[in-house]
Design a protein that fits this description.
By secondary structure, the chain is of the alpha/beta class. It contains 13 helices and twelve strands. Strands 8-7-6-9-10-11-12 form a seven-stranded parallel sheet, with helices on both faces. A five-stranded parallel sheet has the order 2-1-3-4-5, covered by helices on one side. The protein is globular, with a radius of gyration of 21 Å. Bound molecules: nicotinamide-adenine-dinucleotide and (2R)-2,3-dihydroxypropanoic acid. (2R)-2,3-dihydroxypropanoic acid binds next to loops. GO terms for molecular function: oxidoreductase activity. It holds the Pfam family 2-Hacid_dh_C.
């Protein structure tokens, strides 16, 4: 019986789907990140890998695991995968698009509102015993009604964020993306701008692009300096898209007003990171898609994909469709 390695505990239904399809499942249950050497060792004797978490799938890994017939990621982001290497080894790789878009956009929205009202810091101030009387001039945040939201990356998640902001706060939507989205322009009255124009005109910038060589470090001091002093920076995409040292300076010297991060670089963030003690910053531990419903859907999607790969069928959510074309 062929075996599938699952690198984290996932839902029983998803595991049952793999087992009921005729495969043995081994679940790695230790609560720590896995080194590549450990993963290579664990993959021995397995035909399928359902990869949960930031496992690096590169030339070294794929050369060391020639028995793998497919890899299903339980994430939409695939920045840890070297697709050229996967194509070279003819390994199909799948991800979990769409099912997590709403939950992740909710997290971006939650951060936007929390930063605008300093919510996390206010919570901590109660714990510190600082809530002693009602002061009408203290703890003042910003309103979002009618303000301008700049979306970098109007893909699946960016579009959900734009819809929420338009519906809930009638925000003006501006965006920068690889391609224009005429439907969003029509339905949300969204305006397409250059990256620099987006920075200059946004009250909130929300990042939803994939992490690539092009977007790595895109938000540095030069970018923050182009933003408005009242601007809020939200990143739920990947931590490496912003330069953390530059972000800290921009927040400390008032170049921008606040920041909300669901993603950091590295992850986990060091508990002594100065960003955690700033009034104008909210940080979450990469919980973008972390609802029971969404994680269940992601697990089922990943399970369906790995079963397809082992059966020799096309993975429904394959990222590197080229592997099928070259067969
Ligand atoms: N925080 C979380 O838990 C969480 C959850 C899901 C996804 N994510 C991140 O969100 C990202 C986006 O997910 P998605 O499903 O919306 O992906 P998507 O592919 O639908 O959207 C990404 C958009 O960014 C655009 N883009 C990419 N590079 C660009 C560039 N250099 N300039 C302009 N536009 C560019 C693309 O054209 C696309 O429209 C994922 O890659 C992942 O890193 C994070
Ligand atoms: O890309 C994703 O789906 C999330 O960030 C989880 O890795």
């Amino acid at each position: 019986m062929e075996k599938v390695l699952v690198t984290r505990q996932i839902s029983d239904d998803a595991l049952a789907l793999i087992r009921n399809s005729g495969y043995e499942v081994r679940v790695y249950t230790e609560r720590k990140n896995i080194s590549q050497d450990e993963l290579i060792k664990m993959c021995e004797g397995h035909a399928g890998l359902l990869s949960v978490g930031p496992n690096k799938i590169d030339e070294r890994f794929l050369s060391a695991c020639p028995q793998l017939k497919g890899i299903a990621l339980m994430s939409v982001g695939f920045d840890k995968v070297d697709l050229n290497a996967a194509n070279k080894h003819r390994i199909p790789i799948s991800n979990t698009p769409d099912v997590l878009s709403e939950a992740t956009a909710d997290t971006a929205f939650l951060l936007m509102l929390s930063v605008a009202r300093n919510a996390f810091y206010m919570h901590k101030s109660i714990e510190r015993g600082e809530w002693n009387f009602f002061d009408p001039m203290q703890n003042l945040g910003q309103e979002l009604y009618g303000k301008t939201l700049g979306i970098l990356g109007l893909g699946r998640i960016g579009l959900e964020m734009a819809k929420k902001a338009k519906t809930a706060y009638n925000m003006n939507i501006i965006y920068h993306n690889r391609n224009r989205n005429e439907q969003a322009e029509k339905e949300l009255d969204a305006r397409y701008l250059s990256f620099d124009e987006l920075l200059q005109q946004s009250d909130v910038v929300s990042v939803h692009v994939n992490l690539t060589e092009e977007t790595k470090g895109l938000f540095d001091m030069e970018a923050f300096a182009k933003m408005k002093p009242n601007a809020i920076f939200i990143n739920t995409a990947r931590g490496a898209i912003h330069n953390e040292v530059d972000l800290l300076s921009a927040l400390q010297n008032g170049t921008i007003w606040g920041a909300g991060l669901d993603v950091t670089n590295p992850e986990p963030m060091d508990r002594n990171n100065p960003l955690l003690n700033m009034e104008n910053v909210c940080v979450l531990p990469h919980i973008g898609s972390a609802t029971k419903e969404t994680r269940e859907k992601m697990a089922m999607m990943a399970a369906e994909n790995i079963v397809a790969a082992l059966k020799g069928e096309r993975m429904p959510q394959v990222i590197n469709a080229e592997v099928y074309e070259s067969l």
